[in-house]
Amino acid sequence: MLRLPPYRYHRPERLDEALELLEAHGAMARIIAGGTDLIPNMKHGLFTPDHLVSLRGLGELKGIEAKPKGGLRLGAGVTLAEVAASEAVLGAAPALARAARNVAGPQLRNAGTLGGNLCLDTRCTYYNQSEFWREALGYCLKKDGDRCHVTRTGRVCVAAHSADTPPVLMALGATLELASPRGRRTMAIRDFFMPDGVWNQKREPDEVVTAIEVPPVEDGLRRRTAHGKLRVRKSIDFPLLSMGLAAWFDDAGTVVGLEGVVTGLGSRPRHLTRFGELALGERWSPDLMEALAARAHAQCTPLENHIVDPDWRKAMVPVIMRRTLEQLGPVEGAA
Amino acid sequence: MTPSNPRSDADFTVVGRPQGKVDGPAKAQGRARYTDDLVFPGMLHGKILRSPHPHARIVSIDTSGAEALEGVHAVVTGRDMPITYGVIPWTPDEYPLALDRVRYIGDGVAAVAAVDEDTANEALRLIQVEYEELPHYLDPHEALEATGEPDRPFIHAPRKEGWNGNVTKIVKLDFGDVDTGMADADVVIEDDYFFEGTTHAPIEPHCAIGLVETDGGPEGPGRVTVYSATQVPHYLHRELARVLELDPARVRVVQPPVGGAFGGKSEPFDLEFCVALLAMRTGRPVKILYTREEVFYSHRGRHPFHMRYKVGARSDGTLTAVEADTVLDGGAYASFGLVTTYYSGQLLTAPYHMPAYRFRSRRAYTNKPACGPKRGHGSVQPRFAFEVQLDRIAHALGLDPMELRRRNFMGKNTRTVNELRVTSNGFLECLDAVEAASDWRSRFRRLPFGRGLGVAGSCYISGTNYPVYPNEMPQSAIQLQLDRSGRVAIFSGASEIGQGTDSMVAYLAAEELGVPLEYVRVQSGDTDFTPVDLGAYSSRVTFMLGNACLDAARKLKAKVKEAVAAEWECRPSQVKLAGGQALFGPDTSRRMPIRQAFVLAEEMHGTLGSVGWYNTPKDIHGDYRGGTIGASPAYSFTAHVAEVEVDVDTGQVHVEKIWVAHDCGRALNPVLVEGQMEGSAYMGFGEALMEEQVFKGPDHGRSGLHDAPSLLDYRIPTSLDTPLLESHIVESIDPEGPYGAKEAGEGPLHPAIPAIANAIFDAVGVRMTRLPFSAPAVWRAIQKARDEGTLEKPAAPRVARAQAARARGARAEAGRAQSARAERGGGS
Q1: What whole-number distance in Å separates Cα of residue B574 and Cα of residue B565?
Q2: Taking the CB of the first residue and of the last residue of chain B, which one, N or C, has fewer CB atoms within 10 A?
Q3: B556-608 pLDDT, tens per residue?
Q4: pTM
Q5: Smallest Cα–Cα separation from B605: which of B576, B551, B548, B564?
Q6: Are residues B291 and B385 in the same domain?
Q7: Which CATH class is domain A222-328?
């Protein structure tokens, strides 16, 4: 079996205690929540922190609260299994529950957290490998090396953002709350990710995601959400494509807002542009869905950061998008 | 050897009924101790340094840094074990650790023993190896073109002057008149097929512990014991003694419960030699447990096969000739490859009658982990190609593919075109069972576009007729003891690897000796205390060990009956042993507890024990070179129907259900037979849709690096992916099997893959000729068919069912017991 590098495990009871530990140990510390991503990565020698600061004991990070008019407040420490089964989430944003349910397999969802899914390290066939394998490769840009084996020429790491809940949260316009020894701040999840696979988050390593807020729906509007995922197996696998949609309709069934986000491509989820505009003022229709799928297709280019055929993954963008869009409809006008 | 006579089902009290496994509760309750669960006082942990190059000369190795590290007890390299080994004695080409050349990324170079795993890993980092890289081969065709010059080197030294060192084996065999057969054919189908390599992926990684007992001081005659998760303790025993230059009587191999093997643990591996040598060097027990990644490097999985098939048939569907040309991608070492090369052609000749057959198979070395035997060794790949060929012939002739298979059925008690003796044969019953269960007649070619049914058949051996090293000794043996307590102890050399061999012998002994199953204890897999059995491979154990067990049990039974008969003053033949009682046959109200019967026997005969053994009949194959390979005392037969739904937009194939019918001779325990049938179909399904052991090429990071040596990226199906599996047991009651039993562990895998391929054709009219049928591959094939305008439901068979039924009746009457003569044969 692969060995874990040695580390000291801290299990604070309160958030301020956790922040103190992070401050005290600085770059030698890493945050661990469910550990479903970090532990295998540590076994591969991708991280060798001296200290792990666990968020498991922090009551402040627990709980899912339904807010008025479809709003939600989720503690970052809720497990993906809890998100998937939550009545509040299923009522307000069912695609968030669906995305959570689409992550990995049951045991991993029982351990993995929503905050952890937001902070999931980017993934690449040349990176998520053992020390031996990466040494034989000659290492890569993301860890210990100076070459990208995906783009071959590029100087920027293109490891794939591979989490399922961020596309839905971004489409919904959700925000996250960060706490660090320096204070607290709030950020739109749409602004959270950066196009650098080495570190793709606007989160300092000592910042803890504490909560996620999904905004309410404006009066007079209906909101629908969808999540679609492409993978080889029906469980366990990271996404080859993961798509989140949120759409807002007025009483007449006319689209007044549509956001689409696709990931499994490069290092950050792609928030589709000139996408919602296509639908504004339109009634939901097969033609509209076709046009939206085509727009997604034009904007999404999978890379060889995955072992699965990128040409096929590219061709699947409109297919999976169409099927995800179909989850939103049919949309009738108010009776 | 005592071929058993079939008895009527009503006579059985244990056999044929659903039974638990004797080792089931311990495994379910977590009491079973696998190799890695074993801990010995003072035990050290070993690790193996592996090559980061696909092909390189070792210039030098400096182990001084590792040796100086605190906590390191020993470091060994190839120089410490400079004797080649190989499970096939004709092709020994491996050193326990590379001597002067590494041949794939992952080849073992040095090993350390240290106080713990972390220290051992640290020590590996301190070993300095200087390599001189050599050109390497990933493609077997390129390897076959090698000249031995510096830019196109041989991976191994040629075994003879002038030979190509990249060739493990070339087999050319020719039976009947193929050219005339092709000329007489009304339809000839010819195409290329490719079967991608796959690996076994047992859940338990390989693990071994070496320990040394020195009874007579440092110079005394110590004994070396190796505990190993192996499926061939006997072959391991032989090779350990040979390579370590030890007296075999001082070497003991113990095989604890094994957590899956599937052929991946059926020869010696580097870790077994290393733990033994490191234990000898340190005087302390040494354990090595592979990482999952190392399991992928040790491999010995299914060879990638590049196959060209040409099959001719008359307009009524009867085959006229079959021709095959196959290149096997062997990886860095021979492993079982010599046998695989033969099997690639030899095992195709049943259950269909082939008037003429010619094949050429060439196995090439490449700089990748060595390929070897995986469940259905050597015959799963050609079976895929051939059964798809049959489907194409049926379609070309407007025949129902089920009917085409019936028309070519060879019959029972016959010989194949390559002179293999076939006895029992329940293939037609298998076809009938899957045809009825799948509602084939009303659904084949009639399901809506996108949904389809496919059929395929196969046969497989119940053990190889000859051991891997030539000898006349028994192939399986059992030692039995029973005593006045009523307890029966079985000492079995066979390897229980989860398939149920310990249970199988317990059922047979309980049946013969009339004791309740819980009175039977089985001790297996310890070369010091159990008789020699050749191992758990080639589906040999039920047939061979079962017969050995019956032989031993019947010898004891005779003694017990004699003693009871003396007490009752009757003939021994009037005494029955069943259900924990000795019974007087003519009046079963006269009875005594079995314990009392054993007391009488012990009084009459002294301490009760017996040995039984089995050896194969020797006149059941052709007398041409290679004619023994593929010969088996009995063959199992299988038919599958698969039902699929093809997503034409994504190329994803959803296999809804597989109906599996398997002729296992007799189901000694139907629960275990069904388990093997379902497990086999599952494994074939995984290979059909997703599994592939592949490597990075020169444009992808590092040529020769394993693409994905983890169970996250080497995808085996989850429970959600797995189709419904419905098993139908067919019992042909083999004349020589134990109570008529044959194998069930490997045969039922074969048809899964071509049945799925043929179902995809029924669904969307697309022929898949390359494995796996992954979504990208199917999607590309669908795109091509769409462009060519052939993406549609294929035409239904033209020949009316009634007509077909009449033809079948006439044919059955005519019979088909011809024994084809091989015109000639010859290997190289």
Answers
A1: 8
A2: C
A3: 999 999 999 999 999 999 999 999 999 999 999 999 999 999 999 999 999 99
A4: 0.96
A5: B564
A6: no
A7: alpha beta
